Amino acid sequence: MLKKVIQDALNEQVKIEAQSSQVYLAMASWAEIQPGIDNITSFFYRHSDEERMHMLKLIKFINERGGFAMIPALEQPQPTFPSIKHAFKELLKHEEYVSESINKVVDISLAEKDYATYNFMQWYVSEQIEEESLARTLNDKLELIGEDKSGLYLFDKDILMVNVTTAEGK
Ligand code: OFO
């Protein structure tokens, strides 16, 4: 049976993963109406799907451990962005925020000596390392490109490889 303090921490993480899915879904929808960035658009859609998968994994874990996963209300995500670069900056900021919240769950599980939760959360810890590093790489590339339109064209081609690599790596 899950302790209440652990259940609350995990449920908070359910909300954060669900919110992440919404945040990236909003980015995808905004990107979809910008001309010529189809692969960036599918990157955001895919990222949104992954976050939903992270949320579902938590829900199953909570319920399997004898707790109750509460499906949360979500906030309206930022709907539009001044530029692609801004959207990717937000993505990195958001991933850093998620990593902090995952670390909090890890801290609580250790303090409560709940080693099953601690163990389960290690998957999220590794996932965040990958996601933060990817977000940083993409931001660095956009920084190099600056205002160059042909650079953005290449970035959009390049991110297709990220989609493929990530799909194969899962
Ligand atoms: Fe859920 O992995 Fe990013 O946020």
Could you explain the architecture of this structure?
With 170 residues, the chain is an all-alpha fold. The protein has one domain (4-168): Ferritin (Up-down Bundle), CATH 1.20.1260. The protein is 80% helix and 0% strand. It contains 5 helices and no strands. It has helices at 4-32, 38-64, 84-111, 115-145, 149-169. Helix 1 (4-32) runs antiparallel to helix 2. The longest helix is centred in the last third of the chain and has 31 residues, at 115-145. The relative contact order is 0.15. The mean pLDDT is 95. The site of hydroxy diiron-OXO moiety (OFO) has 8 residues, from helix 1, helix 2, helix 3 and helix 4. Hydroxy diiron-OXO moiety is lined by residues 17, 20, 51, 54, 95, 98, 127, 131.
Total helices: the number is 5
Proportion in β-strands: under 5%
Q: Span from first to last CA?
A: 30 Å
State the major sheet.
none
The CATH class name reads Mainly Alpha
Bound molecule kinds, no repeats: hydroxy diiron-OXO moiety
> What percent of the residues sit in helical stretches (DSSP H or I)?
over 70%
Descriptive labels:
about 170 residues; mainly alpha; Ferritin; elongated; binds hydroxy diiron-OXO moiety
Outline of this structure?
The protein has 170 residues and is an all-alpha fold. It contains 5 helices and no strands. The model has no long low-confidence stretch (mean pLDDT 95).
